[in-house]
């Protein structure tokens, strides 16, 4: 139920904007708070100058590694480009001071943005409809599995399984299990692609769908995707694409054209939103025409040039997020899409592919490549050669920190021994990539000449390496007991 806010307009600010005035007395607000939450004595805060405060937080920020500090080649996870214009627009009071329970007549601008982002995503992917509700990629996966279940329920199909390649993201099988299905693992070939023969041997009428990342976690495009789609559809299964790696396909391939029925996209990765520390995120789900009626409620519709939320969707899977997803993330995506346009998005994918293959070409003589296939947005190496000399992939990752660069993803995908997954993204310059290559080659030399230096890294970070053997034997867990 929508309700009006308890604010009255009191006066105009310097910018001409109306400043809201709270209509509830302070004493009444205080009385609403339980007494055990109220402070009895004033907090004894230190009295320090503004420069000291600024220096304190500036110094704290340098203790952690972030994209504003240097290269962050973490693979298959996060878009490392966070334009400052996004933050400026998203912090505009006309967005931050609205309430999601306001009447739709008072939030037409925000509803229009939601509506347009859905249409943009449809155009990018060639899917027929999107929902912006899911709050992360994994949340999108679960929503997609729920839609798969609803589709088969309405068709009275008796389905038990969803197929997943052994190279899949770890959230894929988790989402399938939570969604009420069992998983069947499909093996990969030596090239890192789906083994079609293994797929055919495990395909039956109880298969509800196939969850496939494309390009996959080795960065390789699944060249047999049309054949895979045909096989799954032959048993009335649905093709689900994990779209975490969409920044390799923008303007090049449309998801629907590959035979996929459902996809989730990571707005926080592909479309420039910070996603450190686990959030906030956004994992919209796109579907084909036959699945539109199952999307979660509400949806944004346009009637007579006005926008409103439509809740009357009898076949919907229901509500999967309060109000309408993470609006702040969607807003930044809107800014990014409007800045780049169609040609700019295509350049994103071209540059990410060039950068990944440049690193692959520069490092392949010293670090073993995981597949002979040419990758797209990321490249995966194996550290087996270095392990034979005494230093594991973990040691290489720790040593990179001493050189002021974040480590790539390690030990994933699981089908690659001592895996090093490197995703440079499209925004890094050749100079940055060359410096990264130089450091990686230097670490390889250190392993050859002074392996203990690498094994004891990092040397220069605020915290040294954890003694993993002692930590596993002498587990120290602290917790707080609270009164219920």
- CATH architecture verdict of the largest domain: 3-Layer(aba) Sandwich
Shape: globular
The count of strands amounts to: 15
Q: Biggest β-sheet: count, sense, barrel?
A: 7 strands, mixed
Report helical residue fraction: 25-40%
Strand arrangement, major sheet: 3-9-8-7-6-4-5
How much is the average pLDDT?
89
Short summary:
The protein has helices spanning 26-32, 50-63, 84-90, 93-96, 108-125, 137-154, 171-178, 196-202, 225-233, 267-270, 327-363, 384-388, 393-402, 430-449, 451-455, 468-473, and strands at 7-12, 18-22, 129-131, 161-165, 182-186, 207-213, 238-243, 262-265, 285-287, 299-303, 306-310, 368-369, 379-382, 409-410, 419-422. With 484 residues, it is of the alpha/beta class. It has 2 domains: 93-339, Type I PLP-dependent aspartate aminotransferase-like (Major domain) (Aspartate Aminotransferase, domain 2); 347-470, Aspartate Aminotransferase, domain 1 (Alpha-Beta Complex).
Describe the structure.
The chain has 484 residues and is α/β, with parallel strands linked by helices. The protein folds into 2 domains: 93-339, 3-Layer(aba) Sandwich (Aspartate Aminotransferase, domain 2), CATH 3.40.640; 347-470, Alpha-Beta Complex (Aspartate Aminotransferase, domain 1), CATH 3.90.1150.10. Helices cover 37% and strands 14% of the residues. The chain has 16 helices and 15 strands. The strands form 4 sheets. A 7-stranded mixed β-sheet has the order 3-9-8-7-6-4-5, with helices on both faces. A 4-stranded antiparallel β-sheet has the order 12-13-15-14, covered by helices on one side. The chain is globular, with a radius of gyration of 25 Å. It starts with 6 loop residues before the first strand and ends in an 11-residue tail after the last helix. The relative contact order is 0.12.
